[in-house]
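Inputs:
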Amino acid sequence: MKRRFEVLALFTMLVSALAAQTWIWYPGDYEIWLGNQMNNRRTERGTFYPPFWKMDSHYVCVQFSKSVSLQKSENISIAVEGKYNISLDGKLMFGMPHQMTIPAGNHKLVFKVWNQSTPPTIFIKGKTVYTDSSWKVTYEDKEWIDSSGKTSDTSTTVYMDAGCWNFDNADNHPSQYALPRKPRQAISKTVVKGGILYDFGCETFGYVTLKGLHGDGPVDLYYGESSEEAQDTLHCETLDKLYISDGKVTDLSCNTSFPIADNDYTLGDSKAFRYVYITGGDKVGMDSASMQYEYMPEEYRGAFKCNDEELNRIWDVSAYTLHLATREFFIDGIKRDRWVWSGDAIQSYLMNYYLFFDSSCVKRSVWMLRGKDPVTSHTNTILDYTFYWFLSVYDYYLYSGDNHFVSQIYPRMQTMMDFVLGRTDSNGMVEGLPGDWVFVDWADGYMDKKGELSFEQLLLCKSLETMAVCADVTHNETDHLKYEKLASSLRSKLVPFFWNEQKQALVHNRINGHQSGAVTRYANIFAILFNYLNKDKQQVIEHSVLLNDSIMKITTPYMRFYELASLCAMGRQTEVMKEMKDYWGGMLKEGATSFWEKYNPDEKGAQHLAMYGRPYGKSLCHAWGASPIYLLGKYYLGVSPVKPGYEEFSIKPCLGGLKWIDGKVPTPHGDIHVYMNKKEIRVKADSGTGYLYLDSKHVPRCADTTVEALGARKYRVLIKAGEEMAVKYDAMP
Amino acid sequence: MKRRFEVLALFTMLVSALAAQTWIWYPGDYEIWLGNQMNNRRTERGTFYPPFWKMDSHYVCVQFSKSVSLQKSENISIAVEGKYNISLDGKLMFGMPHQMTIPAGNHKLVFKVWNQSTPPTIFIKGKTVYTDSSWKVTYEDKEWIDSSGKTSDTSTTVYMDAGCWNFDNADNHPSQYALPRKPRQAISKTVVKGGILYDFGCETFGYVTLKGLHGDGPVDLYYGESSEEAQDTLHCETLDKLYISDGKVTDLSCNTSFPIADNDYTLGDSKAFRYVYITGGDKVGMDSASMQYEYMPEEYRGAFKCNDEELNRIWDVSAYTLHLATREFFIDGIKRDRWVWSGDAIQSYLMNYYLFFDSSCVKRSVWMLRGKDPVTSHTNTILDYTFYWFLSVYDYYLYSGDNHFVSQIYPRMQTMMDFVLGRTDSNGMVEGLPGDWVFVDWADGYMDKKGELSFEQLLLCKSLETMAVCADVTHNETDHLKYEKLASSLRSKLVPFFWNEQKQALVHNRINGHQSGAVTRYANIFAILFNYLNKDKQQVIEHSVLLNDSIMKITTPYMRFYELASLCAMGRQTEVMKEMKDYWGGMLKEGATSFWEKYNPDEKGAQHLAMYGRPYGKSLCHAWGASPIYLLGKYYLGVSPVKPGYEEFSIKPCLGGLKWIDGKVPTPHGDIHVYMNKKEIRVKADSGTGYLYLDSKHVPRCADTTVEALGARKYRVLIKAGEEMAVKYDAMP
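Outputs:
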């Protein structure tokens, strides 16, 4: 235990060192503001294309406060984004000072900052007094001064802990945040019909640089995730139109001119592409095009290798796909929407827990998706996406153990759930009401969206359970009981309402109190994942639905994520391995350098590029395409948290037909390493405690500890932090 | 009738001409944004001083749409504040065009505009297609495109009519709005203790200009509404600190430097003052100081003259006081808060109906005070101010007849009333809950704020009645019935709960179900104004409270407004005239050039300047000081609307002890002129119909129409639009 304690102590020190003197703001406000910057970068053929839901913004005036107790007087330096004042013990300082001295003793320091354009933020640096998340913030202090000059009641003001990220020095203004860039060169340059086609070798993202630009006339850039798209100037999804004259470039999409520096010009807007096709007027010249690759710096903490090179390539391309779609937020895809979508994001979060474990990006995305009160529509307008939002808080809590975040976001969970519960029917169930988008999945066949969909009720039920868990985390016993009751009431209705004896499955929906005859995969998949059916029914639907080819197939990696996860949860890793190789391997065989929004193996050639009635409407780099990261980490390396933040974990490694697998899974306090072949399993966890579970023909042997038999050739071994365990065993056939 | 029809038709033409091609926005959004600019101009001795309640802001992304039907194709020019796109019949145009051609036929034109810093606004100018309030706006269009490219359900999107004001050309950007200025010179310049004291002759507002500024060193400006304040450099409420060097001025309150143009420098922030005391370092020189007077252009449509010069002066100084406090919004006072306060504003609105009839400023202030949902506290945090907000909508509707505004603001009235009703006790009454400021009035004696205050219940009751009226205006029958029921239920409890037989008055409050013994004027005044007591009780409280010197006196013009109005409503114009001359005449005798926040005739000299525990805390130009405008217009000229917008009016002129009065009252469609002496009354109304009511010893005579006898020497004469009526009568003694 000693070693583990040291690791944690070290971690705690690191955290407090990192937390010191950072820019702070009202929690969620910077995230919502930055999210607007992100979501408003979408363009469609040169035209600005904002979201169709309510976009919230920051509180324009925020009070920051801190009580300090000083042994001796202290100088602090002050940086603020906004117009501000400072009061010390209720007395206002003159003007907007950049420095001040706080005398020894106990003091109350209060800043009020107003900023319409960007979130009010402050940065204080002193020896012991500095801004961090321990500062309190509020958007209304309700402090008034009566006619005699007395300051009056403030008892109901709601103070929150300040929000922060990693803006740890005074010059690092949060409102000026930009992702880093690095240059990338094209791998080929081809003259095509009077224009030049540049190929950057793989899917990429950033800003094209035109080198040696000179002359007078138009220059057009057509971007393509495929070479077909780049060359189809009438139908490609994104483009730029420039006009060059007098040493200046005019960007025609915004009618703004920029000087050409050293004959080079870098486009102002980022794009996703592999190919760029560039055409120009007769009098315009250009030497070459390159690009500035823009990326979120991420450490690939998760890893996976095995004896199958195709699978290794699937993991690598999945990781690259997720990385491209991990930007200021987890976005859906990099070419088209570039928006934060809740249903897409929850999968990115789960993949992220097996690759980057970037908690900040999860929290930013959760804040941003929630926005502000009042709630006027479902998340992204989609019924199911509201529920995924709740579930994503549960997942984040489970993987990170971050109680503090749960308590910060909980008030917005309450108001979001109030919105949901205000729209339930007399059965306490949700139906798509006017204005709700009931999405479920993009399906190639017809899907009924009317009435009570079993799928939606399962998600609602899990959302209510999430509310109960989070109420408990925030010590809100009243809410805890309320949501437990609502969840169990709904859960008890699921089988009576949706189970069909004849079909031996949960039916798709119920209209006016009557089951429809249709069976789809969705609810049956989630019933397994959420463990909402008894063992018998679970095994029945495995055959009546999951492995039944007559039930409408799933053609999006989005829903394949859950489908394959549910099969893995049923122990069908070998079949899922084959599916993965067929499906993701299929995309690789089509030349994919990142994974797609949708893939139907029955389609051919340019059919793969079309979607939404547009020839290149499909995104060829879509975060939800990267699910092998999650599947391989959770169901093959077999690592998952049992208690929040991996305080306890389980490792259930599974070869799934492979000869060996070797990898690691990140946790909040280190990594968990897993190696497995048919004879040996080696694991090491940097922190936490957990069990390695394994099946073996004979009793496994471990030199360092005892192996516990669980019956039916199942065994487990206790794993302690920091100790590598090697277990000899005999794989089941 | 014909003439009246012509006037209205002309007016309608004028309105539509004015409405053509104006900048538009989401209703309330510009007002809230501009309100933030206004409320954040408060400074306290060089320090920024924002409000202590939640400040809302605009929707950052707004859709503007219009269906048009064109005989032939039309070119339109486009100006936008924000990043935008345009779609015609669902098809996006490239980029952000400044011009476009709409083909002949039926089309749907949609703009989406994003702007974080200032409200999204657009301006379209074409022959028949142009922006005005008939455009529809929404902050979420809920339009999504399914996988086949079909645009889906938008049925629940809430579209509002666009908001606008008077920004009627493309270059007149709403976000750049500033009040006009004109130069004013000081009337005297005196050397005092090494500094120079400038006197501008009367209370004024604007930006000091320093002429011939040169040298190096500090220059400090100390402002005073009194000469005492300006010279008291340690205690004056507002000041500026500059530093001059290298031909630049550094404003030390914001650490920003500006070049000195032609040796002149005009301060960046406006101030209220009559006196400025300027000191400078030895090496700094300056020729003189003048100022840029800043003002809202207003036409003095109301007028009042009489035989009493002191009263004429009271009216003039009242008008100037109201004008100074009528800026982008109706603010409380010009020196200190410079905030929009609901209780102050409702009085400004009422005065405004008798002086400027500036409806735009009323609407802006009402939007701004309401802000956005969710409601997290009372208006300005004050319980009573929430109710005044409701009442101000009622007043505005009554005076203007503006149904459209009522329907625009009604959704926010609903959510505000939801907030109020969510905080009532088991009697359906309001008490001050933690976080609520129960204001009532600044009183020199002790005022109990605990429990159910009768005053607050009366205001709540009137607010519920307002809800019922406005629900009716918006054709919301369900709400109409709901609020009528709530209002009548509460009204029926007022006497049983608060009437005290022994005191013959409404008591001040009720704690835990028991009447307190205290009687104050507040509830008794409003019971008369709202006509909530029967005739007997009204006459009783006139003596038991209103004219009873043992009941705590009112020392603010704020509550005197209602006190004197209630006395006038009881027919005591002669007594009120004396009070007006004593009270406002008293301020004039103290040298007032504008009327004050508070006036206690018992105080002497510099005592008059102190408030809030500060020697110059009192505002000497406070809007609520201008109430004679209202009292003289409504109760002496006697003009008030009977049906909304003066469609029907009543004129009950009253000399109140004067020999003659002569004036006019503005209405939405012209003016109503009234002249009265003891023998003759002449009236003329430009539009509408109404009665002149008068008392006369003998039957009055009118050459043009019949005089109707109402009994008890009361008479009335029908007044038609555009016809001057002269009535000969004999004034009662």
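Remarks. Residues 90 and 108 of chain B are 8 Å apart (CA to CA). Chain B touches chain A through 73 residues (CB under 8 Å).
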